[in-house]
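Work Package 3 committed the consortium to producing structural models of liganded targets before the mid-term review. Because experimental data for this complex are still outstanding, the team generated a predictive model from sequence and the ligand definition alone, so that downstream docking and mutagenesis planning could proceed in parallel. The input record is reproduced below exactly as it was submitted to the modelling pipeline, together with the SMILES string for zinc ion.
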Amino acid sequence: MATTRDYYEILGLSKETSAEDIKKTYRKLALKYHPDRNKEAGAEEKFKEISEAYAVLSDPEKRAQYDRLGHAGIDGQYSAEDIFRNADFSGFGDIFEMFFGGGRRGGPMGPRRGSDLQYDLYIAFEEAAFGVHKDIDIQRTERCSKCSGTGAKEGTSPKRCPTCGGAGQVRTTRSGLGMQFVSTTTCSTCHGRGQIIESPCPVCNGAGRIRNKRKIAVNVPAGADSGMTLRLSGEGDSGEPGGSPGDLYVVLHVMEHKYFKRVDYDVISELPISFAQAALGEDVMVDTLYGKVKMNVPSGTQTHSVFRLRDKGIQHMQGHGKGDQLVRVTIKTPTKLTSEQKELLRQFEYLSNGKKSEGNEKDRNEKSKKSKGIFEKVKDVFEG
Ligand SMILES: [Zn+2]
Ligand SMILES: [Zn+2]
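The resulting structure, written out as tokens with the ligand in place, is given here.
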């Protein structure tokens, strides 16, 4: 062979280096000194040298021989072609593709799995809360039923590929830079299938697969939320013969509700009340996911107070129980007042602020009764 230098030294490795590390190192060096990329003087020679070193060291038998006897174990024992024929150049397709100006990328090609599909499903707030059954329409690639996926016309069958003998791959020897490389590449006649179709099926034109429209049942579980993805195993595109089908991913989008918002499993709602209701307190009816529910607004309620309705939230996806409904109260201040309303409010203001520190216990009770009376009037007038 060409070089007389030590093969390990050329790759910068020791005798103990594992086969895997030798391969990694060679990949790195081959990319560095590849004549298509490296135009420096001597790069081509360097590339030849590392390739030779790698060809010997990647073959366990030759490596053992070289370890025992050095160059004497290789030179004169093997022709250059021999050395490169058994060298492990698998996985270097990209390097040699570049090298030989675009051959087919090597590597075995098994039956390909079908593609995964995605469907965006929009559901109502309540549907997410309680769960829903939906039928969705999708387009997917399926095995052609006319030819059972073979791609061959009825009464005929695919023939074994004459180029690769059915293997789907061919070993090719290539020469370049004064060396020979043996590599395994995908058969270009059958594109790796190992079979060729002489009379194609008229339904699928020989592809073995066709596009079909399908209705798929989707069960959205109670408690589902936006962004959740349901995986329907095997409902995607069908694979090549022998390959498994892809999956269908249903991505959930929960539409906004008129009144409710959701935070985790709690439902949030707003409740506008009058200032009379807030001051006097009252039982009010509140909309929940489960219908109207009576809720007590205690007297003296401030605006933006939050009340909790236990278990009126959303069913937990895992385990038992529900979230709560949180009711946020906002107090409406009237914008247009009648003269009667104005008069009542003036009386209210007078009773609230006038002669605060004066009077005995009895007076205060009297005042309290009076102001209550006014509150009731206010309430009647404002809620009329
Ligand atoms: Zn073939
Ligand atoms: Zn067909």
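Reviewers should note the following from the model. Confidence is low (pLDDT under 50) at residues 100-109, 355-359. These observations will guide the Year 2 experiments.
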